[in-house]
Amino acid sequence: MLSYNALYNEKELLQNIAQGDERAFFSFYDHYSALLRPFLFKYTRVESDVEEIVQETFIKIWVNRDDLATIENVKAWVFKIASRTYLNYLKKAIREKKRNLIAGSGTAVETVTPFERTSVGEISAAIKQAIGKLSEQKKRVYAMSREQGLMPMEIAEKLGIPVGTVKNQLSAALKEIREHLIASGHGPVLIIYTLIKIF
How far out from the chain centre does Cα 74 lie? Predict the structure, then answer.
């Protein structure tokens, strides 16, 4: 097995994966899956579910491997995909438990976690409220990053400001959003939310 750090530097590894090199991909998988598992286990607490989410994450990465050579922050990109995969998994689990309850099965009641009981709509509303409280500059930079998917350098060029200022504005915006979510009682969602489209 290829060593992630020994035989390739990251740029070469990503270029090889983008070209369909499966051995390079398995090296990439070994490295990042080891980082993802403890992160996901904090939320699912079920090893089989963690493995399912990890596998689905890397299937998506392989399907979208052409993008790898252009990614600036690979770790954030991998965690973003894993976070979205987890949220989809969570929504599916909540829907299934609701269907079970409607069908008359009471077994799901005891297995629903506090995080699962938190309405996705509630979380979305809290996030929108937090964004609404940002200054106009932070709101603009945040929207360009999160909604348009622009990198800090692209945002800096469009707004005519230094890249460092963009990064500072994004960090400040995320901090304010996190603080609002904590105050709203949505602590468990913070890591997942922050990593969904982190810069």
Answer: 12
